[in-house]
Amino acid sequence: MKTPKPPEEDLRIGMMVYSTSTHRLRARIRERLSDFLVEEIIRNDVISGCRKSPFPGSYPLLLVEKRNVGTVELVGSLARELSLSPSKFVFLGLKDARSVSRQYISLKVKRLPRDLPRWVKLVGWIRRPLRREDLIGNRFEIRISVRDEGAFMSEVVSELEEKDVPNFYGYQRFGSGRAVNHIVGRALVRRNFHEAVRAFISTTGSGESEEVKKWRRGALEGGRGAIEEGKELGLLYEVLMLEEMERSGDPLRALRRVPLTLRRLFINSYQAYLFNRSVSERFSRELPISRPIKGDLAKMVGGNIGIWDGDGRGLEVPVSQLIGYSYRVLRSEQCEIEVRIMREEGINPKMFYVREMPEVSARGGIREIPLSPRELVVEERPREIFLWFYLKSGSYATVLLREILKPERPYDQGF
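^ that's the sequence the OP posted. Answer follows.
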């Protein structure tokens, strides 16, 4: 069976391959909000060390259930409700806005200022605020609405068990229907700050209304009228940039009008695009995804990262460097792929230290190359499919679902 070609939306963010050969499934996800359920799994010692009452030096641990709202927006809303600064909130990951998600939040306060909303539960009191490493992974329950007669899921699952699925960054990292974050990030890395502003304001998305698309096309030349219209359309960050460009004409000042978390996301999204491209090419070269080859960086038994020399117990997991200013050129085929992509992009690792805006500089890091879904359970019913599975922290459920559906129009199909 010939594998379908990924759509333009996928190619634009570096997802250039499918690992399975099954045909496209005429289906969609998120037909209803309750079709996409996410639950954070945190370390057992955090939960077991939690006490019901506050103790000296303790911090409250909350469990929130969010519906159809992003994590950052939820934290802002809860901060206002509790009369606290958003900086007092510690969360472990950004959950998809179009979902029902249960996630943990700790507060850097010694006591709760007032009663909690109904959608927030006090789990107890812990000895320190949450840390990134406390998040082990996420458990998912997904419903797929199917339009095809016969869902052929046994064939898909069989291939998923045999083939290696790349651990791509999913659509959400790039801005879903608009997919602009990495384009802004590329411009920042290249020090083209005017282009970064232009891309963020003017790039249209397939999921946007014609009114918004029309506004974007004329906003930069629209003056005060465009600013007022942008406010009416609810384009908060675009309006903040436009106001600063109208006032000072300085793109750096305009970019700094948006929150630091968003500016960092631009750079991180560009790193994600480079990762997706490099793993796509690794797959196209028929190099293994789930086991290292000689010279690869790998996560060894016990969790340490090292260069794999061909000896081991077969449990090592290949990892790739996220390109940043601390990137090291190694003697490996994976590294050769990454260096060639950087050359094509006209960048080098040192450019990820942005002297003009050091707060967004990206050191780099590592990411596992295989997706590695666990505990996958599939149940087929007439016109719908249910999936239950677990993914490690940082992996995207939509990447696994993309492999199953192979959507021709990702945004229209719920991605």
